[in-house]
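Handout, section 4.2: multi-component inputs.
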Amino acid sequence: MNRAVSLLLWLLDHLALGPHAESLAGDLEEELTNGRSATWFFYQALGAIILGLWNRIHNRLLALAFASAWSTLYTLWQFFSNGRLTPIDTTRFATLNWPYSSSVEIVTGILPAVTFIWLGLLLYILVRSDRDHRATPFHITLGLSVSLSVLLTATMGLMHHLSDTGLDLRLVTHRDFYLTLHLFAVSIPLALSLLTAILLSFPHTPRSSAYRTKLAR
Amino acid sequence: MKPQGLLSELELLLLLTILNLGDEAYGVPIAREVAEHRGHPVSIAGVYSTLDRLEAAGLVASVLGEATPERGGRAKRYFRVTRRGLRSVHDTRRVLTKLWKSLPALDAKEPA
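Output:
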């Protein structure tokens, strides 16, 4: 058996391309042994690898597209939620000592963004949950908590980046931080956070190794 | 009983092929039979991808079989049609038969 054939069989065995990857590789080798041409084998093996990779990433691409599209609706969300989610008059807390004054400002500033992300996740779960894709309560909780950390980290990174570009962050209030002229840039933390929540909320689809093991029993 | 939804051409072919092969229904003979009936080669990965979908929908079930040296020590995966799958085949046949009744006969004198 030449090297290219061995390499393709190795890739089919190790890329975890689906629950039937091992059987598929076995079928291709059996056909090759029974007289199929090497060209036939290459086409079949390459087709299997491409199809398997597509099956693996297309759910993630869908999640990425949804997270990107959803984050662009944040302006609309701000318009409708304005004053409803954070009805507290934050100026009352300005007289408080640090860190209480800052904490209230941070919470009221970030709450609309967090609610927006959670709403996006809820919508995605409602639309995508089916036999093949199930979000469990444990994974949803994990997704939401990690997504919050991602949002805070990405927001801090963005603030650092905006400071470098010369933007005076003191002139940006907590309320319109996500509505600055850098709309594209500010949607990145939102999209990253939502993407994290989605990916963690949906444990890998039945094509996971655990499912393969279950099938093999 | 409410129909499960019509099967696509490949899904129907695969289910009928598995029923036809009986205990010998694994990747190689399934792909060969489907290619023979379709009249052109099929991608084994495409066959497995459809079988994967049918299995997720509960229309087929599979078990691992024996590993042979000619397969590099890899096990065969044998497929069988479940009761639900059989019902889907019957539902599809019923709908297609109803539609075929109104199929006009080909007139030999008519130009193609």
